[in-house]
Amino acid sequence: MSETAITVEGHFDHHHPAERGTVLVSAGFQGPDREPVVARTAQLHARLASEAERMRTEGAVTWWSADRLRVWSDRPWNKDGKQLPLVHHASVASEVKFADLSRLAAWVESTATLEGVTITGIRWALTEVTRARLTADAQHRAVQDAVSRASAYAQSLGLAAVRPVAIADPGMLGDESRPQSAASAAPMARAGAAAKESSGLDLKPEDITISARVHARFAAS
What we know:
CATH topology of the largest domain: Translation Initiation Factor IF3
Structural class: alpha+beta
CATH superfamily of the largest domain: Protein of unknown function (DUF541), domain 1
Mean pLDDT: 88
Number of helices: 3
Number of domains: 2
Order of helices and strands: EEHEEEHEHEEE
Strand content: 35-45%
Distance between the termini: 7 Å
Shape: elongated
CATH class of the largest domain: Alpha Beta
CATH architecture of the largest domain: 2-Layer Sandwich
């Protein structure tokens, strides 16, 4: 008896609250004299670094890092097209990764009010252990979903026996069109909720999505 080929996509999504938050912060000043600008920036960065290290020793922060001090100058133009006197700039960018998200919120709220500080964003994430666990489970469930879909198609055709022939990540079976967007890739993680540049900061992260997509081919008879 001839067999009928059935090709399907299985998918599954996990939604999990963020477990880590990395604050992107910049300390910097500008002014007509280079030395005071550099000194104020270095002092502010030292304060932020000290706070980050203290929170690390307390367990609220897992790690922090800082770029080198950047110093540059430019001559701005006014609205009449006249070049103004030289302006000096200094800046240091840092990242602080929090395990305690309540401490993250409190630190951002207090730090964002300091002169010279800019909170440029927050990256939300899962721990590596949680990510690995959810990814493996999502892949397993995506395969189960593919089997269920293939079985449903076979039953609709009056076929009973379904056996797997091939399974692959999306686009790798050779005869399907590739995914239309990154949302079809497998596995994948998505997270939202960056810091808002407004009178208040949105410090509640959206759930992180771990997605798995799989293409599978079955023979039904």
